[in-house]
Amino acid sequence: MEKRVCVTGAGGFLASWVVKLLLSKGYTVHGTVRDPNDEKYSHLNKLDGASENLKLFKADLLDYDSLESAIQGCSGVLHVACPVPPSSVPNPEVEILEPALKGTLNVLKACSQAKVKRVVYVSSVASVMMNPNQPDGQVWDETCWSDKEYCKSTGNWYCYSKTEAESAAFEYGKQNGLDVVSVCPSLILGPILQSTLNSSTLVLVKLVKGTYIHLVQGGEDSVPNRVRYIIDVRDAAEAIITAYEEHKAEGRYICTAHAIKTRDLAEKLGGLYPEFTYPKNYSETSVHEGNLSSERLQKLGWTYRPLEETLVDSIESYREAALLD
Ligand SMILES: NC(=O)c1ccc[n+]([C@@H]2O[C@H](COP(=O)([O-])OP(=O)(O)OC[C@H]3O[C@@H](n4cnc5c(N)ncnc54)[C@H](OP(=O)(O)O)[C@@H]3O)[C@@H](O)[C@H]2O)c1
Questions:
Q1: pLDDT at residue 254 greater than cutoff 70
Q2: What is the pTM of this model?
């Protein structure tokens, strides 16, 4: 495939790594950002190859014309942008649903207009796992979808938006002859390129600062000891590029590597970094758990790194960005 692609939300945690990897593979990248003059995107222009091969476009997901300009001339689009709030938001309709749903359809329409050959939609395991009817212990694979009504009734607007947007993307592709492939990552950790905190990075920062507890709604004084499914940001970025480049890729790809309970994760970190303050009290949760499988992605040749490498590289990058002070 031709080597000119557009990455939406280029300045975000995951997208910055996608841009970095694309540049290292010789791609010309059109990166969309909401305000190219904002200092928070300055890391992008410092990436190797950026001065020759990265062009930033001012675009908002709700502004179709801005997307059309950014996507024009590209043979592929990696649609990464989406609001990822760290907790509940006052107006989910405006803050999450509109950019996720209308925004994705705007991107897809602009792709049709520009005759893009393939779109990779970055979804989430939030569109796979949020289903109370899935039996405990089941392997969650690409046939599993979150239950939209359940997401709505429990106020899980992010899960609802990812499920709705991913299914709408496939439906759009089918109706309009656009090749749409999705990648569904689990919790993404790993080194940050940007200088600001994103939601998943905040999970690890709070765990090592002993303030993780504040993420728990209702002010409970213990941390739910639930299973965390973790993927390194660099491996998630590779997965997105694999899904774009592999001719035989089609449908959905779950992207995860390690399943670990929160207490075990804190203990592992404590072995590596005893100087931090970790939560002391944990409560067992009734949330049903299963096994997430990335077998489909691995069959495309994708691999992932050990959890220790992800944790060490994360913590070192947070230190460098002064996020642990
Ligand atoms: N992090 C995870 O654990 C995780 C797990 C599974 C899936 N994902 C998915 O991965 C993708 C990236 O997540 P991330 O963790 O990298 O989040 P992030 O750092 O918060 O990045 C999100 C990006 O979306 C952009 N964005 C949000 N609303 C927009 C709008 N209306 N118009 C244009 N751009 C908009 C943001 O732009 P601004 O910089 O201008 O705000 C930002 O660049 C998302 O699709 C998310 O659902 C993430």
A1: yes
A2: 0.96
15 φ/ψ angles, rounded to the nearest 5 degrees? -60, -35
Q: What is the topology classification, in CATH, of domain 4-189+230-257+288-305?
A: Rossmann fold (3.40.50)
Taking only the tens place, the pLDDT of each residue in 174-228 is 999 999 999 999 999 999 999 999 999 999 999 998 776 544 454 556 788 989 9
Question: Residue 124: CA atoms inside 13 Å, Cβ hemisphere, count?
Answer: 22
Strand-pair category, 54-58 with 28-33: parallel
Q: Ligand 1 center to residue 40 CA distance, Å? A: 14
CB atoms within 10 A of CB 268: 14
Residues with CB under 6 A from ligand 1: 9, 11-15, 34, 60-62, 80-84, 99, 103, 122, 124, 162, 185, 187-188, 198, 200
- What are the residue boundaries of the structural domains of the chain, listed by start? 4-189+230-257+288-305
Q: Which atom of ligand 1 is nearest to the CA of 99?
A: 31
| 146-176 pLDDT tens trace | 999 999 999 999 999 999 999 999 999 999 9
Is 102 a residue of the active site?
A: no
